[in-house]
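User: Structure with zinc ion, tokens only please.
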Amino acid sequence: MIRPQQAPVSAALPGSLCSHDAPMIRPQWRHHWPLWLLAAVLLGVGLGGWIDRGERSAVGRLRPPSQPANPMVPIQPPARPRWVSPLVRSCQSGDPEQRLRLEQRLRALRSSVATVQIHPTNYGQRFQRDVFGRRLDSRPQLVVLHETVYGIGSAINTFVTPHPSDNDQVSYHALIGQDGSVVQVLDPSKRAFGAGNSAFNGQWVMTNPQVGGSVNNFALHVSLETPLDGEDNAPTHSGYTPAQYDALAALLAEWMARYPIPPEHITTHAHVDLGGERSDPRSFQWAELNTRLQNLGSLCG
Ligand SMILES: [Zn+2]
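Assistant:
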């Protein structure tokens, strides 16, 4: 992979010595050819040694451990347990009343959804290549569930505020209020800054050699508004409303139909986070989501 960087150096130097300098040697200097030969040998040894060191660095195996990692050698995420989805595939339909309600919800979502314009510092474009030059499939292929901790208004206020510092930039694609309202914060085609250092089933995308990879390039992020009794760091709270589970199921059904997202690729921030600091969404009831997705037919197949 480092060949394109090496090629101009090794190709240019011999060319400049042989093709241009040699014909310019004047006849009166020719009787000093032993000195020229010695100089050429010494230069050749030095040049050869330089190229050799460069190629060893490219391979990476012979580099002294004190040197920084070569950014051209792809780096894999640390080994972590694979995601075991709590969602169960099934083609059985359930409560007809619930199905009718969810189908109405899905139709409403498809016809119109509230949107908010957030500040460009808080999101980006999906990358087509990673930092190693490899082509990426930037279609959404994963959904990461979050919670807001504070109210939905506080989250929106954060997203519309300019954040010049990388550490403060954050966004999700959608927010779901306790009353079941859905706010599209970012078009799914954009890259939300929903998870920092993160990976899913051994997959991440590294776009900056100075920091670890993340799932953001192939993820959609949705966050549930936390109830008032969850505005702290406690491990649990009173949970989410039936209206929130309805809205989440409808939104996920829409995304799963539009993108290549299987049920097994719906996960949590707590699972993908490599820093071990995230535990959201706390108190999430997978059975509530499972029932609704099954009723919408999104778990069939
Ligand atoms: Zn989160």
